[in-house]
Amino acid sequence: MKNVRALLLSTVSVAGVLLASSVHAQQADEVLKLKEIVINDLVRGSVANAYDARAKAPNAMTVIEGEQLNQFNDLSAGDAIRRLPGVTFPGVNRSREIKLRGIGREYTQVLIDGRPLIDGDSSRNFEVDRLPSAMIERIEIVRSPLASMASLGAAGTVNIITKRQFERNGGGISLGGGYLTKNGPTGDINGWASGSEGGFRYFLGADYQRRRVNESSSEMSFKSGTKPDGGSDEDQERSFDDYLVTGRFEFDVSEKDTVTFAPTYSRSYEKRDQTKFKFDKDQIALKEQGDELRKRTRETYAGYLEWAHEFNDETRSRLFIDLQKGSEDTTRDSVTYTFKKNVLNDVIESERENDISLQRVAPGFVLNSRFGEHNVEAGFGASFSKRDEEENDFTGGIIEPNLGRIYSANEDIIYGYVSDQFSLFGNDQLTAGLRVEHSRTKTTDSSSDDYSVNSTQVNPSLQYKYNINDGLDWRLGVARTLRRPDLRELTPSLSTKEGTLGKPDKRGNPFLKPEKIWGVDTGLDWYILDQQGILSANVYARHFDDKMEDSLSRDASNNDRWVKTPENVGSGHLYGVELETRVPLEFLGLENLSVFANATAMKSRLTDDRTGQKRRFSETPDFVSNIGMDYYVPDWKTTFGVNLNTTYAYTQNILESNKDGDITNVRTHFSALNRLDLSARTDITESFSVSFSALNILRTKDKRERTTFDVNGAIVDKTFTKEPSYSSYYVRASYKW
Q1: Of the four, 412, 459, 634, 719, which is 20 to 30 A from 245 by CA?
Q2: Residue 726's beta-bridge partner residues?
Q3: DSSP label of 559
Q4: In terms of C-beta density within 10 A (0-12 exposed, 13-18 middle, 19 or more buried), how is residue 556 classed?
Q5: In this predicted structure, what is the pLDDT of residue 659?
Q6: Are 186 and 213 contacting, i.e. CB atoms less than 8 angstroms apart?
Q7: 596 CB contacts (<8 Å, ≥6 apart)?
Q8: Which residues contact 677 (CB under 8 A, 6 or more apart)?
Q9: Which parts of the sequence belong to the TonB-dependent receptor-like beta-barrel domain (predicted)?
Q10: How confident is the model at residue 294 (pLDDT cuts 50, 70, 90)?
Q11: How far apart are CA 451 and CA 484, in angstroms?
Q12: The whole model's pTM is what?
């Protein structure tokens, strides 16, 4: 924590110096020619547009435009989002599941164009790795929600807006290629076309990308901390072929009526080749070798239809329906070799099939009307979702169903909300809202037993923005949100993994209750240098009731295998500070150079009802940060970029019950993760550009040390895991007309 406090203090100090200098520069006689900069430097123009949208929003949010987002040639949206304030992922090579403010992905709501897109993830999240960053218009990270938003996203909501460039008749195409070290080539191609004719506007885009990911790792265990007790090495390579087709068509039927249709098609084909070596207790002799080839296809069809009607200058409405259908099909072909004293003993061939089908129908209606100084919005709607999953193993001609992965889940949510936006003093804006959600979740397990959970939640929200002076805003947000249980976790069936501490079996819990979370956010945004820069500080707090976490234990009835089970473990708190700055340095004589940084400090506290322990949330770091710069060279028409992303090291201690009912302390230390990215983009002409990037050039290793202590403080066992990371090099050429 001393390092965290020191870094926070130094960040605030530097921001203060830069702020004082920037204010002095604004008062100087020589006015910066920012309009010329915006024209020539696309990144700065993108920054100015993002800050304008951020300043106008009624609730606290961070906005990043596409030009700034795509500066580093990232293939997946996840790798680009990694550089945004407060964003982490659950591993050094993972960019699938966004974690805002350090806590689990279940607390982050991901929306595509303002609505959830169904995915095979049973936690209701969307895995953003298969969404190409090149097709993104902008990203909004909402810190505190409005009543019009679904009541998920206690940590925040990530709203990804896809391209929709109606303002110009034209199009674009880009082609890229690169290499992931020690893995293989990568590449992408995408194109789009847009325009308008009379009352008709359209955008149509498509993208294909070949990605590679490697999550190879090793794990070594020691009894009493020093005596070898087995281990494993896992070599793994993944390749992804991702396809996306998206469109948006708007037609003004009359002066007061507009019909919008937005279709989306997404397909991702994954191939994972993996070999795992398990060692005997001496960590020398080979005990088992498992070769597995996994193939997974994820596919989503979605269509959004909306009719917008303007009754008069004061009142308008939207009637819409969102239809989605998806699937995820996975096959695993495995060969397992067992050894005794390094001599081959047996060979077992097996196959596993997992099929998931998904459906979502979501109609709704919104009415906006102005009454004097009050802007009132009211809406109601529903979401009817269905998820069917079935997994079976085939070994020696015998079918072995995985009971924890055979179920059907139906979740129906009916909602209504109302909000009122008005001013108290003239230079402020207050948005007060109330949202009511009634949900019914019915799960049918492999034995045809039904489990139903009904819940009605009333979630108020209050968003206040006060303009202290030109460019300086103070914001306050208060809102109540929810976290609903993972759909896979609502049946008591056991899903088998390896039964080890690192990869335990999983048992569901049909008695899980939704978490209820109160949140408060308050902060200052100061837009400086004609909205080319910002100094921002935000303080947040969350209170959790019925907090859900996984409990680890030994299953005495099943060979002492490790099993994790989700439970409502008690209440908890999360609070922290978010700092953000971006400053062009012309006032120091450094023309066309901008520095930026963001940092999030988090502290969590959970009262565990099972053990009475007061501890941090599981796998929640103390501090994450980004620091970087971009430099535009006018003579070369080139922008250079640097970004260092860091998740700082931390240690957690969690008390658990062992098979005998004794309390043990499981201490896990997580190493620091540093990711350094470099980029350069050159505009050859107004229409043609070439960009280069070198990503993750530090190749940091993800190291974790897990130590179990008995009730007397003696070491029972210690496990070391290590996962290397890899660098990526990429070149992309883009042409637009």
Answers
A1: 412
A2: none
A3: T
A4: exposed
A5: 58
A6: no
A7: 581, 582, 583, 626, 627, 628, 629, 630
A8: 72, 83, 641, 642, 643, 644, 645, 693, 694, 695, 696, 697
A9: 285-697
A10: very high
A11: 15
A12: 0.87
Question: For the chain, what percent of residues have pLDDT higher than 70?
Answer: 93
Closest CA to 341 of 281, 406, 412, 429: 281
Counting Cα atoms < 13 Å in the Cβ hemisphere of 180 gives 19
pLDDT 10s digits, 657-683: 765 667 889 999 999 999 999 999 999
CA dist., res. 562 & res. 659, Å (int): 10
| Residues 6 or more apart whose Cβ sits within 8 Å of residue 607 | 570, 571, 572, 613, 614
pLDDT band with cut points at 50, 70 and 90 for residue 5: very low
pLDDT attached to residue 410: 93
Pairwise CA distance, residues 385 & 410, whole Å: 6
Q: What is the pLDDT of residue 661?
A: 67
CB 162 within 8 A of CB 137: yes
What are the phi and psi torsion angles at 711 (to 5°)?
-65, -20
Query: Which residues are bridge partners to 527 per DSSP?
Result: 534
Mean pLDDT (whole number) for 125-133: 86
pLDDT for the residue 11:
38
Q: What are phi and psi of 48, to 5 degrees?
A: -60, -40
Tell which wins on pLDDT, 104 or 146.
Answer: 146
Exposed, middle or buried: residue 145 (CB in 10 Å: 0-12, 13-18, 19+)?
buried
CA-CA distances (angstroms) from residue 585 to 83, 592, 599, 633? Answer: 21, 7, 20, 14
Q: Cα–Cα distance between 500 and 497 in angstroms, integer? A: 8
H or E stretch covering 56: helix 42-56
- Phi, psi at 557, each rounded to 5°: -85, -5
Q: Which of 23-32, 305-314, 323-332 has the lowest mean pLDDT?
A: 23-32
Segment 427-447 shows an average pLDDT of 94
Q: What pairs with residue 171 in β-bridges?
A: 193
Average pLDDT over residues 671-696: 96
Q: How many residues does the chain have?
A: 737
DSSP-derived pairing of the beta strands 505-507 and 561-584? parallel
Question: Tokens at residue 423, please?
Answer: 């001013």
Residue 295 has pLDDT above 50, yes or no: yes
- Take residue 161 and report the two structure tokens written for it: 């807006």
- pLDDT of 175 > 80? The answer is yes
In our burial notation (b when 16+ CB lie closer than 10 A, e otherwise), range 219-256 reads: bbbbeeeeeebbbbbbebbbbbebbbebbbebeeeeee
Note whether 637 and 45 are within 8 A (CB). Answer: no
Three-state SS sequence of 625-689 = EEEEEEEEECCCCEEEEEEEEEECCEEEEEEEECCCCCEEEEEEEECCEEEEEEEEEEECCCCEE
- Report the distance separating Cα 145 and Cα 557, nearest Å: 46
Q: Which residues pair with 650 in a beta bridge?
A: 670
CA gap 192, 207 in Å, rounded: 9
To the nearest whole number, what is the mean pLDDT of the chain? 89
Are β-strands 702-709 and 663-670 bridged in parallel, bridged antiparallel, or unpaired? antiparallel
Signed CA dihedral, 538, 539, 545, 551: sign only: positive
Residue type present at position 545: D
CA 330, CA 269: separation in Å to the nearest integer?
Answer: 10
For the record, the structure tokens of 604 come out as 């969590």
pLDDT of residue 13 exceeding 80, the answer is: no
Distance CA 717, CA 386 (A): 43
Strands (E), 396-504: 398-401, 407-422, 428-444, 450-469, 472-483, 494-495
Average pLDDT over residues 74-89: 89
Confidence of residue 17 (pLDDT cuts 50, 70, 90): very low
Separation CA 250–CA 265 (nearest Å): 18
